[in-house]
Predict the structure of TetR family transcriptional regulator.
Amino acid sequence: MGRPTTEDAVRLTSHILKSARELFFEHGFDGASADMIAEQARISKRTLYARFGSKARVFEAVILDEIDTQLRALEPSGSDEPEIGSRLRVIADRLLEWLLTPRIASMERVVIAQAVRFPALAANIHDFGYQRAVQWVASILAHANARGELSLADPLFAAEQFVTLVVVAPMRRAALGLSPPAYDEAARDRIARGIDLFLDGCRPRQGDGCRT
């Protein structure tokens, strides 16, 4: 049959990751064995190890692929919203409609459970996901700062605080089972109040501006 083409290799990798993703999210890292992944993907365990090297590498690839796929689909290309609060609400809605779901809550639990065992994975997730979201917000804040809507000494630092308050906190509560993993009306209202609170501390005032 000859050697597989590049397209064949990409399709096989995507198929394996899709199969492994469901098992990891349902059973956790320890509960999903290499045998189970190979069986789910309808490949041999030898093929699995030849492509990824270890179950840990499969796990890392699954998580990073999930993050990359979703963030590329959600990445803002600009907004027609003229007001800073509306622009921040758009990006918060995009992220939380993805993150506040049972699927991502399950992923977050698995990642938290394995963070100590795989510190490099935790660092990659931070850089690959969190920092990308921070950069989106920082560009919005910097633009508003330049127009005088906000008074920020450091828009990047302010963006980190925004993402932690508005995005990371509700995602973590859902993963811990403290709130439902759903972006419902209650969650939307909570996020709207969080955005108002954030902006209230960053708008220009008489005297010194916000030092965030």
Q: What stands out?
A: The two ends are 62 Å apart (CA to CA). The CA atoms of residues 165 and 194 lie 7 Å apart. The chain has two domains: 1-53, 56-201.
